[in-house]
Amino acid sequence: MDLQLGAGIDGVEATRRIASPDVHVLVLTTYDTDAGITRAIEAAAAGYLLKAERPEELFAAIRAAAQGRTALSAPVAGRVMDRMRGTAGPSLTDRDILGQLARGLGNREIARALFISEATVKTHLGRIYAKLGVDTRAGAVAVAKEQRLLP
Questions:
Q1: Taking 90 as the threshold, does the pLDDT of residue 25 lie above it?
Q2: Are 1 and 27 contacting, i.e. CB atoms less than 8 angstroms apart?
């Protein structure tokens, strides 16, 4: 199940409706946000995998989910464990992304710097553009500086 299904119902709501003791739903997505992970788990997803996983990891997760076992991508499992232990760092904000944009970094470099996926960077960028009323990276940085969102 992907989290982004297009217009209408999202993957979390579909998971909530489909999952049962006999039906195990495995989320397979590019979105590795804490909110997405939490919502999917709360909707009774059997697992949460990132699309960047190697094929053998995907196959193993599908088999595990089919047997009712939990399957998580390593980065997702790490985030869940950090949250449970109370050692999770501060949550990622749009300001974190803006700061990296201001440094002139591209999506791949921002993802590496913030330990997130490129898809998560793109999700944040879309939200930033909408909030600031811009449609370019340079426009986002300029408006963020005007609004004193950046130093």
A1: yes
A2: yes
Q: What is the pLDDT of residues 112-149, one digit of tens each?
A: 888 788 888 888 898 889 888 999 999 999 988 888 88
Res 87: pLDDT: 63
Q: Specify burial of residue 110 (Cβ count, 10 A radius: 0-12, 13-18, 19+).
A: buried
Domains annotated for the chain, with CATH where assigned, are 11-85 (3.40.50.2300), 94-146 (1.10.10.10)
Q: Look at the pTM and tell me if it is higher than 0.70.
A: no
Residues in the chain: 151
What is the sign of the dihedral through the CA atoms of 12, 44, 76 and 78? positive
Give the number of C-alpha atoms closer than 13 A to the C-alpha of residue 7, restricted to the C-beta side: 0
pLDDT, the chain, mean: 85
